[in-house]
Amino acid sequence: MRIDRLRKNYCIEIRWTAFPLHPETPEQGQTLEDLFAGRSFDVKAAMLRIRQVADEVGLPMAERTKTYNSRLAQELAKWAESKGKGDQYHQAVFQAYYVSGSNIGRVDELSSIAESVGLSRKEARSVLEERMYRGSVDADWMRSRELGVTAVPTFVMNRQSIVGAQPYEVLEDFIKAGGAKGRNAEDRT
Known about the structure:
Helix content is 51%, strand content 6%. The protein is built from nine helices and four strands; from the N terminus they run H-E-H-H-E-H-H-H-H-H-E-E-H.
């Protein structure tokens, strides 16, 4: 993964920030056609563009016709991060949503994802049912608004940003321009 490679090659800290992507989506999900109904938006063309970008940057992605509410997944991510499993959890949720088409708005699915990365299924369920990380995600949503984030993924460094799945070289140039120091001698120039 590009982020892992950047972390290996540069002295950077990665901070995941939750973003309210279609928070109105019901728990059972919604078709993309319904989500964009009444707007001048070609869902098939957009999905084709997303698929092409994913292919270009090496991200796995299946055809999808539905979207699911990601709020609970974001809350559980904050818990996973507190347990030192944030990166693994984020990758597992990505795989579940974009590759398997899983409904990441459901407690059972999220508890299973947590267990798949070595976290307690029972504790994950409790975290979700008690909404223990609601405030953390609310703070992230506020931060994303303050930073002017309008789409995911967005990469921010020193209040500068780039949007979209980017090739490694683009991300590398971005962090170098932001002052990141390389871990290897040739990366420190």
